[in-house]
Fold this protein.
Amino acid sequence: MNARLQLPPVKRRVALYWDAAANMRVRQLVHRPRRLLPPRWLSLGVATRPVGWEGVAGGLGVDPAPQSGRLPPPDERSVFSAVGRARRFPSPQFWTRDDDGLLFLFHLHGFADLAAYGAGSRTLKADAFWTRVLENWLDECSSPSRPAWHPFPMSGRIIAWCAALSAGGWDPQLAQRMRESLAMQARVLRRSVEHEIGGNHVLRNAAALTFAGVCLREPKLERLGLRLLRRELEDQVLPDGGHEERSPSYHRAVLADLQDLRILEGRAGRDAMPWLDHHVERMSRWLALLAGPDGSLPLLNDAWEGPPIAQATDSFADLEDSGYVVVRGEGLQAVLDDGPVAPPHLPPHAHADVLSFVLWVDGEPVIVDPGVSSYGGTERDEYRATRAHNTVEVDGVDQCVFWGDFRASYMPRVRRLRLDRQDGVVVISAEHDGYRRLRDPVIHRRTFVWIPDAGLLVVDKLIASESHDAASFLHLARGAELRDGQVRGTQVLPLGGDPDLTVEQGHYAPFLGTAHPTQILVRRRRVQPGEAWGWALLRAGLTASLKGGVARVARPGRATLALTVD
C-alpha cells in the first residue's frame, strides 16, 4: 500500500503542498501571491488615453486545432459550444454563470470563435450577431474582474479582437470602444503575466502583448512581448524541438502563435527575427517526426485531435529531451515513451504514462493513448491515471499522485538504461521509480524491441523485494476490436506467465467533451520480483516467446530472431 496515502488527511495535504512547492521555480514562487490580487487592483493607475491603430492582424489568431473540435459557429444558431457545453446568447448572466465550468467561461471570454469568423466568409446577419455579442461584453465586462480579465482568456481575446478589428467592416463607434478596451486589457495583462504558472500560458501572454503592441502602435508593449517570448522560448523549448509540457496539442498551439507572430511582424514592416524562425523550424520538425502515417498526432498527456500533419519519413528518431523515440518500418510505426511525465515545476497537463507507447499498422492506429475528455472532476482523474495508458499499474496505485485538476506530486524519475540499433532492430530499456511510495518500493523496468518488418515486443519487470499485483493495459483505437487474437491484422500475444487476458470497456476522447467507447486489453497477475512478462504485437503469422531473458520471434521462411531483453 502507498505509505503516503495512509497519512492523516491534514498531514497528507501538507505533504502534497510541500512537494509542489519544492519543485517550483523561484519565479513561480515569487509571483504566486499576485494571483490573490483582483484584476481591479492590477488595473489601478491604468489611464484611458487615445490609441493608435495598425490593422495588420487580419486572418490571424485562428486556432488550427480547437480543443472541442470543429463545432457549428455561434452565429448560426446564437449558441456558443465548447468542451461538451453549450449556452445561448443572450441569456441571464451569460458571461459569469459558472454552472458549465471555468474552462467553458474561458472559451466565451477568449473569443476564439470571433477570430475564426473574421478569417472566413462574413454575412450581414452574422456581423449583426457578433456586434450584439461584442457590445454586450463591453457593457457587462469592461470593468476588470474575473473570469473575464483572467490573463489566459484575456490573452486570447486580445489576439482575437486585434484580428477582427484588422478585418474591418465594424461600426466605427464599436470599433473605437474595442480599441480603447484593448489598450486597457493589454496594460493589465502586462501586470499579470502568468509567471506563477509558466509554460504555454506565459507564451500566450507574450504573444498577446506583441499583438497589442503592434496593432495599437505601442512600441514598448511590443518590445516587452517579444522580449518575454524570446526568453521563455529559450527556456521552454527543449533541445530536440519539443515543448517542455510534452503535449503535442499545446506544442501545436504554441507553434501556431509563433507562425502568426512572424506574419504580423512582417506585415508591420519589422526586420526578420532569426531566433523566432529557428524555434518555428525546430518545433515544426518535432511535430513532423511524431506524426503517424495518417497525419495524426498521438494524444500524449492533455491532448486532442487536429488537422493532419505532414509526417517525416525517418525510420528512427530519438527525441531524447522530450522522452520519445519514434520508429518506423514496413507499414509499421510506434512512438515509445521513456521520458518524464512533465517538468517537475509544471505538472498541470501531466498524465501517468511513463513507459507507455502507441502503434500504427498499415496506416491505421491500433494501440492509442485515449486522450482526455474533461479538465475537471473524477472524469479527469480517470483519463490521467496509469490504467488509462499502455503501461503497468502496480498494487492499484498510479505512477504519481494526482490531487486537484492540475496538480501532480511525487512524479516518477525516469532513467534510460539502453538504446541499441542493429540491422534495423531497435532495443530500448528504461525504468522509473514512481512506485517508490509503496511499502515495498518497486522499480518498473520496461524493454521495447522494435522489429521493422515484424512489430513490437514489450517486456516488463518489477524490481522489488516482494511479489506485487500488477496490471498491464493496451488501449485499442476507436473501432478496433480483438478477434481471434488479432486487432486489425496485428497478433496480440501475451509473453511470460499466464497467457490469459481480459477485454474491458474503455473510452477514447478525441476532444474535450467528447468520448467514444473502446476496448482495453488487460493482463492482471501476481508478479514475482524480476519476473519477465509482457506483450508481443506482431504481423499475422509470426509467433514470439520469452524465456530466460531472451525473446524469440519466429518468422516463416527466415531464421528465428533471438534478442536479449534482460
